[in-house]
Amino acid sequence: MQDLGFVLDGLYAAGWWPSEGDRCLQDTDGRWYPDEAMMLESFAQTTSNTHILASEHSASVEIVWSSSDQNRQSVHGRSRTEALILAFTRLYIESHPCTQSV
């Protein structure tokens, strides 16, 4: 299993916490995070033109999207899951600006 510690640190620092009914997976360190279907549904509700691009030349994945509040945005991850969590965290921060930890 991949090490998601760094991206999960960011997700939890943004104030996200699993709610009852969320479809989540558990990392090896015990922390929960949204499953891919839940993250993709969140993107579909809050963004437009979401694209997931896997590099043929490296082990990276880029997610590109636009939202009503922001123009084009993107994140890069070492895996599809890592990139999805990074993008999900950015969207969470946009929609919950007062919950971000210092």
What does this structure look like?
This protein has 102 residues and is α+β, with helices and mostly antiparallel strands. The model has no long low-confidence stretch (mean pLDDT 89). The strands form 2 sheets. Strands 3-4-5 form a 3-stranded antiparallel β-sheet. A two-stranded antiparallel ribbon has the order 1-2. The N and C termini lie far apart (30 Å). Helix 1 packs parallel to helix 3 (80-95) and helix 2 (36-46) crosses helix 3 (80-95). Strand 4 and strand 5 form a beta hairpin. The chain contains 3 helices and 5 strands; from the N terminus they run αββαβββα. It has helices spanning 5-13, 36-46, 80-95, and strands at residues 24-26, 32-34, 47-54, 61-67, 73-77. The chain has one domain (5-95).
Q: Radius of gyration, Cα only, in angstroms?
A: 13 Å
Total beta strand runs: 5
* Major sheet: 3 strands, antiparallel
Beta fraction: 25-35%
Low-pLDDT sequence parts: none
Helix content: 25-40%
Main structural class = alpha+beta
Please give the domain count.
1
User: N-to-C SSE series?
Assistant: HEEHEEEH
Notable features of this structure?
35% helix, alpha+beta, single chain, 102 residues
In short:
The chain is an alpha+beta fold. It has helices at about 5-15, 35-45, 80-95, and strands at about 25, 30-35, 45-55, 60-65, 75. It has 3 helices and 5 strands; from the N terminus they run H-E-E-H-E-E-E-H.
